[in-house]
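question for whoever is on the cluster today: can someone run the full assembly for these? two chains, 493 residues total. i dont have access anymore since they changed the login thing
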Amino acid sequence: MKKILKYVIVDIAQNKIVLIYTLLLLVISLTVFNLEDNAAKGMLSLLNIVLIIVPLICIIFSTIYIYNSSEFIELLVSQPVKRRTIWLSIFSGLASSLSLAFFIGAGIPILLYHADSTGFMMIAMGLFLTIVFVSIAMLAAGLTRDKAKGIGLSILLWLYFSLIFDALVLFFLFQFQDYPLENAMVIFSFLNPIDLGRIQILLQMDISALMGYTGAVFRDFFGNSTGILLSFLGLFIWIFFPMIISMKKFGRKDL
Amino acid sequence: MINTKNITKKFGKLTALDNVSVTFSKGECIALLGPNGCGKTTLIKALLGMVVPDSGFIYFNNELIAGKWMYRSRIGYMPQIGRYPENMTIANVIDMMKDIRKEDNEKPDEELVNAFGLKNLMQKKMRTLSGGTTQKVSAALAFMFHPDVLILDEPTAGLDPLSSEKLKQKIIKEKENGKLILITSHILSELDNLVTEVFYMQEGKLLFHKKLSALKEETGEIKLSKAIAKIMTAQEFV
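^ ran it for u. tokens below:
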């Protein structure tokens, strides 16, 4: 495992994209913090970066990387190496290097300018979303042999989690607005890792009062330590579930 | 050494392997023959665990290989079309394989690396190599870790006559060391003084598996190529 992981990480490091991603995040976060005197406003701008850009880059880069490693995978599969080791090494290599990129690019500026519970939650959610979307990319790339299809699928999944899911929830809300749906909303939020991240960060920012009655219900459920623990658990499931399915799939794949 | 029992593999509607049962024993040099697309490569990939059969069992030294991986340390595999990470140099690839496969007290066999003159090309990236040079790398890697079983899929395709002769000498040498060698090739004249058994497949089925001497006797030919040609034409009229 360690040996294969080493080759994956060296390969990702040689591929300059992760470095550029780090620098991009660094420039963005330093800019938003220096644009205004109020660091809290900077955090709000950074929130959108964490919720939109980070998942997008992670899922697209990972999917393309997995397809481009097809030769590497093919070479190793005929060698005395477990298939599970190959797949896990690629996952760990991508997850660790993208997490490190996020931590250097966004985490360190947050710690410098806004090192309180909101900042820590934002870093935690950024790291979680990074790993979740690497895991979803592994699934998307594992499902189909066709590179174009796989990348298309990743883009669709990202669109789904960042836009379409919310639209569906809104649609659902308007259709059933005569019923009390606040508790259902709590359940819905577990179906989307980005929503889980957004709710936790917003609750830390103390602007949940702006979200009306649903905001109060969210505060009630997610605001305490059990709620935080539950949403972390939800995110862990979002990491493991796609990963395990893709690993099963890869275990029986013909190369 | 390697047994397969009723393995079947389908790719969609195409049946690549149809109930194939064979036994390959130690010390033999076996030619896998058959027309294009008859399932030779699929059989090889199934032995290596790269293709998972739909049904049937494969045994390596009487152990089921499904889900196992250690047995592959005793196989050297030379693919028909070697695909290597494009950004790596030849040296990177060889070092990586040594890192993954090397047994502690064993010196890697670099005879072919030297014979093919790969030492001077070590810093070249894999994507810049010609098909023949890639084949040389594949061959060198297959023999490098003293495997008990050598699986060579079209080993001489794309090699120049000199290199192909060097590879043949190496195969003969390993055969004399008592290793099991599986070879597929369409250049039958090359196989004449190499193989001891012939394994013939057609449309995913095993047609026959015979000693070379028995085959020559039956057909009354001295050359393998003529013997096979006789059988193939006979097949067409059936």
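summary bc i know u wont read the tokens: Residues 4 and 27 of chain B are 18 Å apart (CA to CA). The radius of gyration of chain B is 18 Å.
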